[in-house]
Amino acid sequence: MKLRELNLISFGKFKNAIFKLDDGLNILYGGNEAGKTTIHTFIEGMFYGFQKPHVRTRRSFYEERNKYIPWNGDKYAGILIFEKDNKRYRIERDFKEDRFKVYDDLTGKDITDQIDGGQRVKTHLPGLYFFDFNCLVYRNTVAIRQLENKVDGDLAKEVKDKLANITTALDDEISVKKALEELDHELGKIGSEKAPTQPYAQAKKKLDNLIGRQKQALEKKREYDSLYEDLLKLQEDIERAKEEVEEIKGLLEKANMIKIKRTYEEALSIEKAIEDLDNNIKELEAYANIREEDYHKSLELDGKLVALREEIKNLSERINRIDQKLEELNKRKAVENEAYVEEIYEDYSSYNLLEEEKNRLLLEREENKIEILNRELKQAEEKIKRTKMQGLFLGILAILSLGLSLVNNFLLIATIFSAILTMYSIMSKRKMQDELSSLNNNINGLKSKEEERKKRIDQIEKEQENIIRKYKLSSKTEFFMLYEETRFKQASVKDHLRQMDELSTERKDLIRKLEDKKAERQNIEEKLRYLLDSNGLEDLKDFKEALDNKISYDKLKRERENKRELLERILGNTSIEELESKVREIKEDIALDRDVEAIERELREKEEYLSSLNNEHSRLEVKLDTLNTYIKELVDIEEEINRTEAEIKQMDKKKRAINIAKEVILKISEEIHKEFAPRINKDVSQLISSITDGKYTNIKIDENLDISVENPQSKEIISLDNLSGGTIDQMYFALRFSLIKSIKEENLPLILDDCFLQYDSNRLKNILKYLHKVSKSTQILLFTCQEREMEILDGLNLKYNLIKIG
Asked: pLDDT tens for residues 752-787?
């Protein structure tokens, strides 16, 4: 296959850009951002439309589809012309609408419908048809991007599929990976015990549930048989209990006759007690309206009066003591010259403020800073001298180099380097002179500030001395003593005035409280008199005696009421007259050693026992009916268990068959790798030996396409990570190139985008020699941003087609 023309109608930064390609080696040269990667991506997009492999929808794309949308918002399209099997084809693609056409470029016939490269993704992909592999393999073999020499992790699976199809003559759409995925999918549909939503786990769960239900049903059957025996025994107990109840009822009838006679006698006794109580109540009836709550209120008011009298006494005594204290303080009150005191206070405050300012100024000395800046100034002056000498030396060196470069061109580089250093020296000198000027300014500023500080300290000391002389004193200590003495005298006067003011305020407050307490006392006395008068009594002593009689009166009334209630309770719905009539009807003496209550209690117990037996009988009948439902289900459960066990056996059989199929496929895949590994190892080893001048001759490629190398000295197998970056790039390049030969016999184009940035000159020379040799049968597109590829090819006198981009 040969690419002939790339027409970027509107793609990325390009608009109507056409690039024509020749057989052999094509070098597409352009600087950074010139668009080399854009053209490289354009070729892939034309063949594969940025469609991701192995997807079931046409809407899954690589990010490049959006990345290269034209900047001007124009249409997003291109044309690619190529040759394959002596035929010329044209692909026209609209990336925005995700549509393309394939034409026979000679006749112009539309052959798009003949291109079947992606039916499973509901769209045609020309790359699948013309290259016979997907874009993942394309990206790892035909097209190698900048700094992406290492193969993709999924490439190993794709290569295995391709080799399997080649060696077994299978349809190219058949994939080992897809076959295993399909088998795993079938296993997934059956599931396992750990997949609760799948048929296998559900069947297992169903079987466990059925076995549990079967076990439960069998337990219910055993329970049914046991309960039925209990029911028969219970029926016998019920009959015996009924006979005992009838016997006790006969005894109760006799006991009731005896009870009637006793009730009559008790009723007569209670009626006599009620008559006696009525006589006693009549004697105390005069105290019936005495109110107990009034007595308690009276006691409470009397207690308050006692407390108020004590409070009034205490308040009067406190007022007398305050009057005496005020009289004493009034005699000791003194008056001081307020203006003189205020003047001393103001001068003392001014003196302290001046002292604080002087202390602050003493701490702000600048001599140390000035000394440090002087040292820095001296160092800067010495540095400028050295810089002048360096500049002079570099200038002389530049002039000498310029003269010698006329004899030897190589010395021109030294001239340029010397000129750069000279310019740098001049700029450094200017910068240091600016710093020197700044240091001088800072030193002068600090000196001026230090002189002002000293002047202010002298002024403060003079002002402080004037304040001390004003009071005819000789030192700061004497002035402080004068201030403290004045302050103490003034504080004593103020304290007397404050005490008098506080005592006057307290006296007013106490007088007000005294008046309030007297008013409260009068109010309580009036309330107490009202309570005594309303109960017809003179004092609390009479009130206490009357209340005791009232309590006795109420007690007798309650006792009479209790007797009346007891009589009514004994008689019930009958009367004494009716009881008397029934007693006369009893003709014989009835002797019974048990009372009615005991017989009634025994009857209740027997009836309750009989009721419990009947309840238990009903409960057992309900339980037996419920258990009977489980017993009926037992047959259905056992049939369902048999069906479910058969389903599980069938699924186990199918799972075993699928796992056997997977083992066979994996075994075939391993055998294919063993068959092709020597050939790939040989191809890679020969290529590496060629481009490394025979340094590495034995390369190993495992089934995951991981590379290891035999150490040429020790013959040890070493990991690729132990080699240099350039050697690693060579290894992966050789692997990619060998893979193309293994999975495709025809010569496909090789597209390289700045792949040799990490190669040193020797490696680059070897690889270019090899590529030029390969280009005799294979078209190569080498994108580069450097001129050294062309320089090496020109130096080797090797032909190539140069295409400049940008």
From this structure: 988 888 888 888 898 899 899 989 999 999 999 999
Query: Going along 454-557, which residue ranges are E strands?
Result: none
Distances (CA, A) of 32 to 29, 68, 79, 139, 348: 10, 17, 25, 22, 81
Instruction: Report residues of the chain scoring pLDDT below 50.
Output: 117-122, 149, 151-156, 158-160, 162-174, 334-336
Phi then psi for residue 586, to 5 deg, are: -75, 115
Which 3 state secondary structure label does DSSP give 354? helix
C-alpha span between 246 and 607 (Å, rounded): 10
**DSSP category for residue 110:** B
212 by DSSP, 3-state: which?
helix
Concatenated DSSP letters of 382-417: HHHHHHHHHHHHHHHHHHHHHHHHTT-TTHHHHHHH
Residue showing tokens 């005069």: 286
Helix %, strand %, coil % of the chain (to 5): 70, 10, 20
Handedness of CA 732, 733, 734, 736 (dihedral sign): positive
Strand partners, 28: 783, 803
Provide the pLDDT for residue 61. Answer: 82
What distance lies between CA 302 and its chain's CA centroid?
Answer: 73
Nearest in space to 203 (alpha carbons), one of 510, 642, 602: 642
Helices in 284-337 by DSSP H: which ranges? 292-332
CB 40 within 8 Å of CB 17: no
Distance, in Å, from the CA atom of 568 to the CA atom of 270, rounded to the nearest integer, reads: 10
Q: Confirm if 731 and 697 have CB atoms less than 8 A apart.
A: no
Contact 79, 92 (CB under 8 A): yes
- C-alpha–C-alpha distance, residues 557 and 546, integer Å: 17
CA distance 779 to 740: 13
Q: How far apart are CA 141 and CA 126, in angstroms?
A: 17
Q: Quick one: which H or E segment has residue 79?
A: strand 77-84
Closest CA to 183 of 646, 638, 727, 663: 663
Place of tokens 């929808």: 57
**Residue-wise DSSP of 642-707:** HHHHHHHHHHHHHHHHHHHHHHHHHHHHHHHHHHHHHHHHHHHHHHHHHHTTTS---EEE-TT--E
Q: Which residues contact 71 (CB under 8 A, 6 or more apart)?
A: 12, 13
Asked if residues 453 and 367 have their Cβ atoms less than 8 Å apart, the reply is no
d(CA 133, CA 226): 77
Within 8 A by CB and 6+ apart from 644, the residues are: 203, 206, 207, 210
Alpha carbon separation from 800 to 1, 43, 657, 749 (Å, rounded) = 18, 20, 59, 15
Provide the pLDDT for residue 538: 80
Q: Which residues lie closer than 8 Å to 641 by C-beta, 6 or more apart?
A: 207, 210, 211, 214
AA identity, residue 702: D
Reported pTM:
0.42
> Which candidate, 543, 530, 546, places its Cα nearest to that of 286?
546
Q: What is the pLDDT of residue 401?
A: 67
Q: Tokens representing 148?
A: 């992406």
Task: Please identify which residue in the block is written with the tokens 């409280």.
Answer: 513
Buried (b) or exposed (e) across 700-710, using 16+ Cβ within 10 A?
Answer: ebeeebebbbb
Parallel, antiparallel, or unpaired for β 99-104 and 25-29? unpaired
100: β partners: 93
